[in-house]
Amino acid sequence: STVSPNTDLASFHDHLKKSTRVLALLGAGLSASSGLPTFRGKGGLWRTHDAMLLATPEAFDEDPALVWQFYGHRRHMSLNAQPNPAHYALARLAEKMPGFQALSQNVDGLSPRANHPPGQLQLLHGSLFDVKCVDQTKCGYIEINYEDPIVPALAMPTGVDPTTDEARDAANNPKSHDISDINTALPKVEIKDLPFCPKCSQHLLRPGVVWFGEALPKKVLNNVDAYMRDGKIDMIMVIGTGAKVYPASSFIGDARELGAKVCVVNMDANDRPPGGWQEGDWFFEGDAAELLPKMLE
Ligand code: BJW
To answer: Is residue 125 flagged as an active site residue?
Structure first.
């Protein structure tokens, strides 16, 4: 389309001041300045790992040790990261505006640690720190777990992500993206040393995140539905996300249909909302951690 977005901060501030119902769709770019890699950006996780292989139930069935090593590393990095000024600015907006809802795709725990008021933060893709029995039908066990490492076998002695290109180089397989070759670069972890369910004692535990092909948590989807049914939405802010993953990305169009203006905050000017720019949209280019405190003050 020929529409270009508004980049004027004063008009954004005017609209925010008049707003009572605002959504924020959050993605990995929000946590980038906390030192956590994004998924698809430069140096992102999915460039060096074949995350399609790792973030699926099939990968876990095939090689739970590899998948647990990946998530053990992610848990370790997230626990050692701190919420940045953008996480805090969003939590403060939530305190001021009861009709504000943050919908986070992130599983790193940083928005929860910035203390959003209860009920104003929905974790669309679960959390690295929810750990659950793989059998949610018969067993159903779920716990909150911040242990690092979660089991001794998942300690990372080198402090280096064992599934990076460097690790593959070390294994003399620099070009390979084959799961079995990546595996040769990893310390060997036996399935018996992975975390097992303390309730049924039969099945493995797994990270409580939403993998490809899995449904988002029912309670979270119900909360989003209820918010959407409640009427007009003034604005949806789309912050640090490529907005390519369904169904999170579809909330942008849903909000537009309820009258919302769209405000994108992203490092990359090529990352447009699904369907492109529309009249009245805003775009602020740069680091969310620098921009959001100014935008939301
Ligand atoms: C900055 C910045 C800075 C950088 N400041 N900005 C084909 C077509 C259409 C759909 C499908 C399809 N095949 C499969 C599907 C469905 C699939 C899907 O959408 N796939 C697409 C990839 C095409 N979706 C699903 O499978 C979902 N489930 C589902 O559909 O279920 C159906 C169902 C219903 C009922 C019963 C059963 C089933 C589930 C999707 C779950 C996604 N999970 C993941 C992994 C979570 C665990 C983990 O973390 O390991 O969630 S995938 C990954 O992507 C992760 C993220 O939350 C999500 C979004 O990524 P995000 O946050 O946008 O990151 P990036 O890296 O992509 O973008 C970062 C952005 O930040 C960039 O724009 C940068 O420029 C920017 N940035 N630094 C500001 N400092």
So the answer is: yes
pTM: 0.93
Half-sphere exposure of 18 (CA within 13 A, CB side): 10
For residue 50, what are its two tokens? 């074949």
ipTM of the complex: 0.97
Residue 74 maps to which CATH number? Answer: 3.30.1600.10
pLDDT in tens, 213-235: 999 999 999 999 999 999 899 99
Q: Please tell me the distance between residue 246's alpha carbon and the centre of ligand 1 in angstroms.
A: 7
Which residues' Cβ are closer than 6 Å to ligand 1? 27-29, 32-33, 38-41, 44, 55, 105, 107, 125, 209-210, 212-215, 240-242, 244-247, 265-268, 271, 287-288
Instruction: State which residues form the domain around 177.
Output: 39-80+128-209
**Closest residue CA from atom 63 of ligand 1:** 241
Amino acid identity, residue 32? A
Are residue 142 and residue 196 in the same domain, yes or no? yes
- Active-site residue, from 13, 125, 177, 203: 125
Domain boundary among 209, 242, 257: 209
**Spatial separation of the C-alpha atoms in residues 113 and 230, rounded to whole Å:** 28
